[in-house]
Amino acid sequence: MQLRQSPPVAEEADFALTYRFGPYFLDVAHRRLFSGSDVKTLPEKPFQVLTLLLEADGKVVERHTFFERLWPGDPVGDANLTQHIFMLRGLLGEHGGDNEYVLTVPGKGYRLAMPSEKKLGLAMKGSCERCGRVLKPLDEAYICSYECTFCPVCSDAMARICPNCGGEQVARPRR
Ligand SMILES: [Zn+2]
Ligand SMILES: [Zn+2]
Fold first, then answer.
1. How far is the CA of 146 from the centre of ligand 2 (A)?
2. What is the distance in A from the centroid of ligand 2 to the CA of 161?
């Protein structure tokens, strides 16, 4: 008897909803934060904090909005929010008082230092960027989070690492 194996996780790109800001790329469905070749799966609460900031697109997110979204019906103190902001800043590589991405707005809340770009799905290119092979919509192809597109042969040869951005290439969804 043969055991049926489920398909490996994260083999197929499912970047349904994504945000870009600064050097970062957030894959919302998988809570994955990409930066070049670095990929982190964000813990639930820092992910929610980041999502709220991204939805606000550089505008202030007030403290009560965080409380309502992160701890609905569960009154927590300011210290809790401060702690999760601190965690998010750490995940974004911000240490000490040098905050490049998440800014404190005194008396109000927090905001992102830059606008974010929201996207539904990734736009695949029509040909391999390495060998120029034409890729039709249902052809097997690999794509990185910055939409660099490669044929399977080239992607294999590069061990799935994008030469342009250093990011991981994943199989594109078949539609
Ligand atoms: Zn190719
Ligand atoms: Zn790339």
1. 5
2. 8
Longest dimension (CA), the chain: 65
What stretches of the chain show up as alpha helix (H) in DSSP? 44-56, 63-70, 78-91, 152-157
**Whole-prediction pTM:** 0.70
Which listed ligand is nearest to 149 at the C-alpha? 2
Q: Which ligand is nearest to the CA of 158?
A: 1
- Ligand nearest the Cα of residue 150 is 1
Q: Could you give the CA distance from residue 173 to residue 154 in angstroms, rounded to a whole number?
A: 18
d(CA 68, CA 6): 37
C-alpha 149 – ligand 1 centre gap (Å): 9
Going along the chain from its start, the domains and CATH numbers come out as 17-118 (1.10.10.10), 123-175 (3.30.40)
Interatomic CA distance for residues 49 and 67, integer angstroms = 10
The position carrying tokens 């550089």 is: 58
How does pLDDT run across 105-139, given as a tens digit for each residue?
999 999 999 888 888 777 778 899 999 999 887 78
Q: What band does 145 get if pLDDT is binned at 50, 70 and 90? A: confident
